[in-house]
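USER: Please consider what follows.
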Amino acid sequence: MSYHKSIKPFTTHVPTWCPGCGDWAINSAIKRSFVNIGYTPSDVCVVFGIGCSGNMNDHLNAYAFHALHGRSIPVALGVKLANHDLPVLVVAGDGDTYGEGGNHLLHASRGNHDITVIIHDNSVYGLTTGQVAPTALHGMRAKSTPTGMIERSISPLALLVSQGATFVAQTFAGYLDHASEMVEAAMRHKGFSVVNVLQPCVTFNRVNTYQYYLEKSYYLGKEHNPKDKQSAMKAALEMDNERYALGIVYEDKDAPVYHEQVPTFDGGALVSQTPKRPIDVLTEEFLA
């Protein structure tokens, strides 16, 4: 398929990202997945975090909300609970989701909320000039850690699998076709789906480069069973040894999603329900 014209409805201004930044590929992968699924800009809502990834808010045409740092997931959950017929996508960085928003990521995982989260994992806070993020390698030197990062790096895939996310995948911004495939699969999944995108920051991260990921990443083969949680955890934990599995690490298609278990929604999405009591009466009670 030729994507040049087909992604045009989702395209606005030319991005201001650094030349070579992985954000360019992630932006294209998301647009490709929208086209393949058959969405128009009016069919989907995207909630953005803060940082270089969040700047995609200016470059991706759709219903959008630019959230506070670390708060993109709870905003997306609110959108989905109000209108669970609307596909909801979160686009955020590793600091947004594994740092400031780690608590929200954990509880959205265990609730199996039906949203998709695309994480720009470049191991640094790029927009604030390169401080280490939770996924940075132990000992990494940066402006915030001139003698090396003391903490061990987080294991994002293992965290997601262990806490209840029902679709966990990983891809590399250097492989656009694969990135598009993973984003599309995540969007089609019913439940809490996350794609961790290994994304080089060409300006502030001289460790996790394109060459680094080309050498240390590999595609999961047919022997890998994404339905097997033990197999998924084994693949997920390889990141601790600087081995990066690409593909669908874990998927559970049978787990019930959050909004389908809420009695309030028996009458349909909130946006389609008629209030049982007049709004002015509820307002008076609230202000009383």
